[in-house]
């Protein structure tokens, strides 16, 4: 292609405008050539028996555009192209996965029934918080297969509110609800409708309250019980005005006869309010059980730069995982890989910090999931494809929920929440598509390293 350009260029030596036009074509072709070669190189590395000149044209793969790299420094072009090649190999592999990954595994049925029995709303008494607070074991927030889970979610949804405060934790609007006990809940209000689509970067937009609820359900399904217990809850700002503290009350105002609030936090603005619904008089949101005990915050090794022109080390360094492995406790690294899979499924690309309890990872702050069902940010999976290992238990559990069982089970749990429906059909389809990408990533790793990838 390049030689061809030179030949054409020679023919037009005396035509200034055409020459510069062909110069641009040549530079462009050269960059294209680099991208293609790297694609082939990575495909060879990840998957030895794959076709070498396969060109991506799948609907979702189109979202990854190698031209995004053009116009930046040449080493960044190469690095970004490498990442794109890995991601394209994952997408391509998902199309040739064996039938077992697409079929339902009969094992899931009994687990689904158990989960539904656990999550079924149930009556509770005043020892409910004592019970829930005794569940904590390191990062495990709720037990495996315990029917009292449905009693705790009922209490989260129904216990009367004694006071409402503005939470100073984090950067977005959150309320602290005090219930008898006392027991505290964090309330993340609804900012969006279910079918709203968040465009922009992977971390764009405000928290999605439905994402917090579905994440709790997903944590149970995947048996990664590290997320807070969450239930949908309706509150009336108007009726609870008298329970609000002064700081919060100062940010409450009536707009079009609706009671609204904007709160005080880093991103809180007086013109960005949430309000009681004009017909029901209620504001919906996700109510999060507050996890007791000491929680420690750490910078994520896979933190983004939050600047499109700047790449983080994990995006540049081919041996990043080996380096991190030397620095981090092995269990934490395995937890981070579990978290990457969890975040990839929900599409939370905003886990800038991770938080631990007794040296194990919690899945806190799941509000940035389910923003756009038509896009898959595969780089959320970087800890998995860069390290190329995964806990054996996580892998087995994922395999149990293949072929549509994951979303079928989630749907049954979602149905038990008062805010059902929690997700649109498109989000369910996206979850299944992403699960296949997790399967293909692990399959590529297995082809390269064998069974030792299962830890
Ligand atoms: N359920 C919970 N139990 C205990 N602590 C919690 C819980 N949820 C959140 N927190 C604490 O509150 C902090 C802020 O919460 P969260 O991260 O959800 O808010 P945020 O506004 O999205 O913050 P950021 O902008 O930093 O992402 C968390 O870092 C965590 O330490
Ligand atoms: Mn957040």
UniProtKB/TrEMBL annotation:
Instruction: Cite the active-site annotation.
Output: 350
Q: List residues binding Mn(2+).
A: 207, 365
Question: From which residue to which does the signal peptide run?
Answer: none
Keyword Metal-binding carried by entry: yes
Q: Which family does it belong to?
A: Belongs to the FAM20 family.
Its required cofactor(s), as named, are: Mn(2+)
Question: Which residue intervals define the domain FAM20 C-terminal in the entry?
Answer: 256-451
The entry's localization annotation reads: Golgi apparatus
Keyword check for Membrane: yes
Q: Name one GO molecular function term.
A: metal ion binding
What is the name of this protein? FAM20 C-terminal domain-containing protein
| Classification via InterPro entries | FAM20, FAM20_C
Q: Which domain of life is it from?
A: Eukaryota
Keyword tags: ATP-binding, Disulfide bond, Glycoprotein, Golgi apparatus, Manganese, Membrane, Metal-binding, Nucleotide-binding, Transmembrane, Transmembrane helix
Q: Where are the transmembrane segments?
A: 21-43
């Amino acid at each position: 292609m390049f030689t061809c350009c030179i030949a054409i260029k020679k023919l037009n030596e005396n035509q200034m405008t055409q020459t510069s036009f062909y110069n641009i074509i040549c530079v462009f072709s050269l960059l294209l050539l680099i991208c293609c070669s790297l694609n082939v190189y990575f495909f060879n590395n990840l998957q030895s028996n794959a076709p070498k000149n396969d060109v991506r044209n799948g609907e979702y793969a189109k979202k990854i555009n190698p031209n995004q790299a053009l116009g930046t420094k040449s080493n960044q072009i190469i690095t970004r192209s490498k990442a794109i090649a890995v991601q394209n190999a994952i997408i391509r592999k998902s199309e040739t996965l064996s039938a077992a990954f697409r079929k339902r595994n009969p094992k899931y049925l009994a687990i689904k029934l158990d989960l539904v029995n656990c999550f079924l709303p149930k009556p509770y008494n005043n020892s409910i918080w004592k019970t829930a607070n005794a569940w904590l074991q390191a990062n495990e927030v709720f037990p495996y297969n315990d029917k009292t889970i449905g009693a705790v979610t009922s209490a989260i949804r129904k216990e009367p509110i004694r006071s409402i405060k503005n939470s100073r934790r984090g950067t977005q609007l959150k309320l602290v609800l005090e219930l008898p006990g006392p027991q505290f809940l964090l309330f993340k209000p609804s900012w969006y409708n279910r079918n709203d689509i968040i465009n922009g970067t992977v971390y764009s937009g405000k928290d999605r309250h439905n994402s917090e609820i579905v994440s709790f359900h997903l944590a149970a399904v995947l048996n990664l019980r590290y997320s807070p217990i969450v239930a949908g809850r309706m509150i009336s700002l108007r009726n609870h005005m008298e329970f609000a503290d002064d700081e919060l009350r100062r940010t409450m105002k009536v707009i079009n006869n609706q009671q609204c609030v904007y709160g005080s936090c880093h991103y809180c603005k007086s013109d960005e309010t949430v309000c009681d619904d004009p017909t029901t008089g209620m504001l919906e949101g996700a109510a999060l059980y507050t996890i007791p005990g000491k929680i420690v915050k750490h910078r994520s090794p896979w933190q983004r730069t939050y600047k499109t022109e700047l790449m983080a080390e994990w995006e540049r360094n081919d041996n990043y995982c080996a380096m991190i492995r030397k620095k981090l406790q092995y269990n934490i690294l395995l937890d981070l890989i579990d978290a990457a899979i969890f975040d990839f499924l929900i599409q939370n690309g905003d886990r800038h910090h991770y938080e631990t309890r007794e040296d194990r990872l919690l899945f806190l702050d799941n509000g940035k999931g389910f923003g756009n069902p038509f896009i898959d940010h595969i780089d959320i999976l970087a800890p998995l494809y860069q390290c190329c290992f995964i806990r054996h238990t996580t892998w087995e559990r994922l395999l149990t929920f293949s072929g549509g069982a994951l979303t079928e089970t989630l749907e049954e749990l979602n149905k038990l929440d008062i805010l059902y429906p929690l997700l649109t059909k498109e989000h369910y389809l996206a979850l299944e598509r992403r699960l296949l990408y997790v399967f293909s990533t692990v399959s590529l790793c297995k082809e390269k390293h064998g069974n030792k990838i299962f830890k």
